Amino acid sequence: MALKVKTAETKVVLVNLLICMVVFYTVYYVVLSVCFAVFKIKMLDGWAPFDFKTNPSWINPHYLVLVISLETTFFICGLLFALVVEEWVWDYAVTVTIIHIIITSVVMSEFPLMLHWWLALGSGVISMTCGGQILAYCLFKDNFIYPILDDF
Questions:
Q1: Is 76 exposed, middle or buried (0-12, 13-18, 19+ CB in 10 A)?
Q2: Which Pfam family, an example, fits this chain (predicted)?
Q3: pLDDT per position as a tens digit, 34-92
Q4: Is the pLDDT of residue 130 over 90?
Q5: Residue 77 and residue 83: Cα distance in Å, rounded?
Q6: Cα separation values, 13 from 34, 47, 85, 124, 133, Å
Q7: Is 73 buried (19+), middle (13-18) or exposed (0-12) by CB count in 10 A?
């Protein structure tokens, strides 16, 4: 059985993915800037979205900024992804997160093995997916495509 993929559908998916990536990093840097201003941290590091090496401590304001901005970004992006892709928020959320992990590994020149980073990332993906899917369902419930499972 051959895999049949239409070029138009692939282009739409890739364009949506590109839009989601741009939205993700734009929101990330805006939220980082706000958090840096709120916590009165002098220097905004351009590599902050990829920093998993900061020592986890609830009294370290730099670490708090990284965690709060990560979680806030993921939640906001889930809601924005719902407006871009309508019903497949979970798919784009996971794909953007995997791409972010790859970019993080390349930027930091090592694969992130810090448990605290993975926990923050995992909870962010869950909030992105759940928030985005709920919003997509509320906004587009009349247009949702429900699979026909009678053939299984």
A1: buried
A2: SYS1
A3: 998 898 888 777 788 898 888 888 898 889 999 999 999 999 999 999 999 987 899 99
A4: yes
A5: 10
A6: 31, 28, 9, 23, 17
A7: buried
Q: How far apart, in whole angstroms, are the C-alpha atoms of residue 47 and residue 44?
A: 9
Provide the residue type at 81 as one letter.
Answer: F
pLDDT at 17 over 60: yes
Per-residue pLDDT reduced to its tens digit, 20-43:
999 999 999 999 999 988 988 887
Instruction: Please name which of 96, 93, 98, 41 lies closest in space to residue 64, comparing C-alpha atoms.
Output: 41
What tokens were used for 71? 């979680």
Tokens in use for 19?
A: 């839009």
Q: DSSP string of 50-100? A: G---SPP-TT-HHHHHHHHHHHHHHHHHHHHHHHHHTT-HHHHHHHHHHHH
Structure tokens at 79: 């809601």
Which structure tokens are listed for 91?
């798919």
Residue whose structure tokens are 């201003």? 37
- Residue type at 86? E
Tell me how far apart the alpha carbons of residues 35 and 53 are, in angstroms, rounded to a whole number.
19
